[in-house]
Amino acid sequence: MKAPSCCPPSQPSSPAGTEAARGTALLAIAGSPNVGKSVLFNALTGAYATVSNYPGTTVEVMRGQARIGGRQWEVLDTPGMYSLLPSTEEERVSQAILMQQRADVVLHVVDAKNLERMLPLTLQLLEAGLPVILVLNLMDEAERRGIQVNLKRLEQELGIPVVATVSTTGRGVKELRAAIAHYQPRPRTEMLTYGEKLEEGIAAVSELLPPDLELDRRAVALLLLQGDEETAQRLGTGAEVAAVVAEHTRRHAQPLAYLVATRRQRRASELATAALEIPEARDRTTQERLSELLINPWTGIPILALVLYFGLYKFVGGLGAGLAVDLLEHRLFMAHVNPWIQGLVDHNIPWPAARSLIAGEYGLVTLGLRYAVGIILPIVTFFFLAFSVMEDSGYLPRLALLIDRVFKQIGLSGRGVIPMVLGLGCATMATLVTRTLPTRRERVIATLLLAVAVPCSAQMGVIMSLLHARPALFAIWAGVVVLVFLFIGFLAARVLPGEAPHFFMELPPMRLPRLSNVFMKTYTRVEWYLKEILPMFLLASLLIWLGQLTGVFDWLVGVLAHPVTWIGLPPEAGKVFLFGFFRRDYGAAGLYDLDAQGLLTGVQLVVGCIALTLFLPCVAQFLMNIKERGAKMGLAISLFTLVFSFVVAAAINGVLRGLGVHL
Amino acid sequence: MICGMCGTEFTEEQAGAACKGCSLGGCGMLRCPRCGYEMPKEAALIKWLKGWRKKEHAKR
Predict the structure, then answer these.
(1) Which of A53, A72, A408, A513 has the fewest other C-beta atoms within 10 Å?
(2) How does strand A50-53 pair with strand A132-137?
(3) Handedness of CA A168, A173, A174, A175 (dihedral sign)
(4) E strand or H helix at A62, and its extent?
């Protein structure tokens, strides 16, 4: 039971130091979230605990007292952490407690079912020279899955005590108390090495650390090399250390944090292989079976095809872009709103320019509002509904694992799924997210692919609505876009030097999506999207109106008419590409209008869709490419995209016409 | 908030910390501190509805 603290946030109750200095022994409980740390804390401390914010933060830390082996212990339950290299406030607090408090014993609590994924933190704690006892909690769940852990082997390999517990029933707690009571620091047997180059860096940084440093020098050097600003600030390491870290960072093609994490994960996998017995055939849950089917390429790819067919083609393309757009665009805007607003301005506004601004061919209401609400809104609503179901079911991380192998061929890893999936929402934001990719090579490839072959959801939805009734056209469009995606990625991976990336991801459980959650997420996304696009669409109408007044718009459309006719489209399609540079979905809506006016044949329609999908990214993404990849690379990507889109569209047009195809 | 990609549970404050270094700001998105996946901030209407439901639940 927690009792709220009566005391103001204080310094951690024990100053850094030894048991003698503190008066009691200190026991710290560490581990990932949801592994049963708090239950174990209660089992050790009894009923009462105090909860207070860690100084200078809003992160709560629980403290309690325990009598173990005739000694009085202060027990600290640290916030959930995945790594000693912190990326969240909780991890920063946990790191500070573990590195500064000098606990007499640190219990690293792990989920016994997921030992392989949790051992990297154990290795980190050992590297830091902490007195660790490994606690394999949730042992009952592991046993139900038939997992057997060879505790002795794990103890030998790691050189620390290992105890199996079920904190909810109290099983193993007696043994744990005995292990704490009799804990004797042992000479370290587990020592990872990171290769010659990185070891040189560790040695160089270690040498520069203060001689009176109480922490493990190697562990601190590793944290600094991985860019841990917290540790650098805490220790006040100067410019000399920063320079050495920068120099050694430059020596490696991949980020040091990534190299270190990969090495630890490899060792964790070896340890798990040595200590775990996982039966081949055991009773797996339905979720586990489904999870395996989604990840296995033989079953996962057909399932992905089904998801794309029913989730995107049928649901978004058929229902959203077909039925809902028909209702809003044709029956509401074209039949009622536009005639009404045109009548209203004709009767009340005497100035033709003002009438044109509101209700003209490119008017704020007749075009800007109609595109945003009549065409884009229903499409993105259906897309976000399907997307929320995929997200809530746990499908996305499995998709990342499934296509990891394919992505490796194009210089990316499963991690690249994140910007690609986000690119379906907004490629500009997704380009920013490429920062999360570990190497420059991956970032450049992902940026290029986002610019060339990843349509945003609204653009894709409009294209689906155009091609939905004509499956042959849709198949050509989808085939060309997928081929271009793979071809460009494959080519880029060969042109840009670098190693094949590694990818690890902890899979959250599969779950049945909750309808209320799906609707809430969809509403949130649709609201965000409308806030984003409505002002932009209205601004586009305003700019076009200004362009019409000055003649710039017609001139630009005239210029674009030339390349547009080269790919076999009518000259009127020039404005579609002008719209497309302003916003991708705005351009797609323009193509929708052109088709509705009966100006396009089947071949022209599919060529137009291909050209618009591959065309230069919108102006926001264009600027983002320059910002993220630098002027030279950003401009090169945009120029390549511009030329490439027209070359591919011209080739498809040539092939289809050459073969005499009539669609 | 639960990340739709890796399942990590995080708060808006933690997401804010994950955006440190981005000079753009105002994108209305929350970034998962663990995997970098982005989601829009919860809509005001949804927050209000959740708060209202909580109050109603507490009354009972």
Answers:
(1) A72
(2) unpaired
(3) positive
(4) strand A60-68
Give the residue from A427, A462, A480 showing the smallest Cα distance to A637: A427
Phi, psi of A248 (to 5 degrees): -75, -30
Question: How many angstroms separate the Cα of A541 from the Cα of each of A363, A578, A579, A617?
Answer: 6, 12, 10, 19
How many degrees, rounded to 5, is the angle at CA A227 between CA A223 and CA A231? 55
- Tell me phi and psi for residue A446, to 5 degrees: -65, -40
Q: Fill in the amino acid letter for A469.
A: A
Interchain CB contact of A396 with B (< 8 Å)? yes
Cα angle: A507, vertex A512, A513; to 5 degrees: 95
Task: List beta partners, residue A164.
Answer: A136
- The continuous run of DSSP H or E covering A175 comes out as helix A173-181
pLDDT in tens, A162-216: 999 998 888 999 999 999 999 988 766 557 888 888 899 999 998 888 877 777 8
- From A400, which residue of chain B is nearest by alpha-carbon distance? B5
Which one of B1, B2, B3, B5 makes the best mutation probe of the A interface by having the most chain A beta carbons within 10 Å?
Answer: B5
End-to-end Cα spacing for chain A: 71
Summarised one tens digit per residue, pLDDT across range A403-438 is: 887 888 888 877 788 888 878 777 777 887 787 676
- Do the bridges between strand B38-40 and strand A25-30 make them parallel or antiparallel, or are there none, so unpaired? unpaired
Output the pLDDT for position A376.
82
| Contact by Cβ (8 Å): A292, A262 | no
A168 touches chain B (CB under 8 A): no
CA A387 to CA A320: how far, in whole Å?
A: 13
Among the partner-chain residues A87, A90, A418, the one whose CB lies closest to the CB of B5 is A418
Whether A220 contacts A250, CB under 8 Å: no
Q: What is the 3-state secondary structure (H, E, C) of A392-405?
A: HHCHHHHHHHHCHH
Q: Which of B6, B13, B28 is opposite residue A528, by nearest beta carbon? A: B28
Radius of gyration (C-alpha) of chain A in whole angstroms: 30
Indicate the pTM of the whole model. Answer: 0.62
What SS3 state is found at A42?
Answer: helix
Of B13, B36, B46, the CB nearest to A436: B36
